[in-house]
Design a protein that fits this description.
By secondary structure, this protein is mostly beta strands. It is built from 2 helices and 22 strands.
Length: 342
């Protein structure tokens, strides 16, 4: 049973006409419960049992692993409650203008065990959210594909929180859900020769998303992230690409209550790639040059910011103050070398 609504607007939810008489005889929490459930039978046999009130506060988990330049604002929330039978019972989506300043939400649910997932800042570029799956194990956060293996970079930092709630066997009514980041931030300064134009920026070898309830990353070795649209001109022949992307390495999943504990072992830092594609004129012919930087010792981790300054021209390139591998293809075509989806 799924209900999609907005907290703060429950009083305006439409009710089936046959509920009117039933509601007149209900008081207190029972009346509130009917707003969350479908009682479509005349004898009310499908109505829920006793309800429980709870208050939830969503808080971005502040740890030493989150860079000061990382965006810690919450601009949208998408939350779901899965009942003990494994079904998605309640789902709500809130935009920035609907979020209370204290991030406190009062919720009434029928007494049951619930598994709760909440994501923040996870709307797509069109402003819409993909609805949660009925199976909690299948709920994921992924960017929609713009090509066969290409996704768009994110302009906001995405966060995830999970919680177990037992309204049957506890008198606890206040819960705090720490939100932990699912992405890394990149700030790439690119100095380019005046002979180059139409600079495009991509990164490769990142994770492809997250399985939310398990807290595990999704792999796709062919994935490429397109950050071209998130560039700004900071000087003549200098661009800044500032964006968020999935990490290249992740820590083993741990309970959120342990996020402030001692540092954890991480998997070996894998290399990742940075691609710049640019157009230039070779005589009367327009060509494309591709610069491929291989980053070996600076993995992208959630909550951290990767900063790098690069220079490119038609014959070479440089990653300033850092030794790294670079390949230059002055006559790049799709399928020639790394096939970046355009």
């Amino acid at each position: 049973m799924r209900h999609i609504t907005h907290i703060g607007k429950l009083a305006s939810l439409p009710l089936l006409g046959r509920l009117v008489e039933a509601l007149r005889g209900c008081r207190g929490l029972w009346a509130l419960c009917l707003l969350f459930a479908s009682c479509i039978d005349e004898d009310l046999s499908n109505c829920p049992g006793p309800c429980g009130d709870l208050t939830i506060r969503y808080v971005i988990q502040q740890t030493d692993s989150i860079d000061p330049a990382f965006d810690v604002g919450i601009r949208s929330l998408h939350a779901g409650f899965w009942a003990s039978d494994g079904t998605l019972y309640e789902e709500y989506i809130l935009g920035e203008d609907e979020l209370p300043a204290d991030m406190l939400f009062e919720i009434t649910l029928p007494a049951d065990d619930y598994s709760h997932i909440v994501t923040a800042n996870c709307e797509r570029n069109d402003g819409q959210h993909r609805l949660f799956d009925d199976d909690i194990q299948a709920v994921s956060f992924e960017q929609p594909y713009a090509g066969t293996d290409t996704i768009e970079a994110m302009s906001r930092a995405a966060y995830l929180g999970t919680l177990d709630i037992d309204l049957n066997n506890t008198e606890r009514t206040l819960y705090e859900v720490p939100l932990r980041p699912m992405v890394a931030k990149l700030e790439l300064t690119v100095n380019y020769a005046q002979t180059l134009s139409n600079i495009r920026c991509y990164i490769g070898n990142t994770k492809a998303g997250w399985m939310c309830w398990a807290g595990t990353a999704i792999d796709n070795e062919r994935l490429v992230t397109d950050a071209t649209q998130l560039a700004s001109d900071v000087a003549d022949s200098t661009k800044l690409y500032a964006f968020y992307a999935f990490p290249t390495v992740v820590d083993p999943p741990v309970p959120v209550t342990m996020l402030d504990a001692k540092p954890r072992a991480t998997e070996e830092a894998g290399e990742w790639k940075l691609f710049f594609l640019s157009d230039y004129m070779d005589g009367d012919e327009q060509k494309t040059v591709q610069h491929t930087f291989t980053i070996e010792k600076n993995p992208l981790r959630v909550g951290e910011v990767f900063r790098g300054e690069f220079s490119i021209n038609t014959t070479g390139g440089e990653y300033h103050n850092v030794e790294t591998g670079i390949e230059v293809d002055p006559d790049w075509n799709p399928g020639h070398g790394t096939d970046v989806e355009l």
